Amino acid sequence: MDAFAKLPEEINHLVSEFSSAPVVGDLTVGLTQYSFWLLVAAVVFAVVIFAFVKKQTLVPKGVFVNGVEYLIEYVENDVAKGVVGTGWRRHFPFLAAIFLFILVNNFIGLIPGMKPGTGAIGCTAALALVTFVYFVYYGCKKHGVLGYIKSLAPQGVMFPMNVFVWVIEVFSLLLRPITLAIRLFCNMFAGHIVMGSFSIMAALFAEPLLEHFSAMNAVGALPSVAWLIILLIIYAVELIVAFVQAYVFTVLAAVYIQIAESDEE
Amino acid sequence: MKFANRVPRALASAALAMLAAPAPAFAEESAGGASILIPNMAEFIPALIAFLIIFVVLAKFAWPSVLTMMDERSKRIEDSLAEADDARAKATEKRKQAEQIVADARRQASDIVLEARKDAEAERSRIIAAAHDEAAGIIARAHENVEEERRAVYASSSATIANLAVQVATKIIGDRLSDDEQRNLIERYVNEAGSLNG
Question: Do the beta carbons of residue A135 and residue A253 sit within 8 Å?
Answer without folding.
Answer: yes
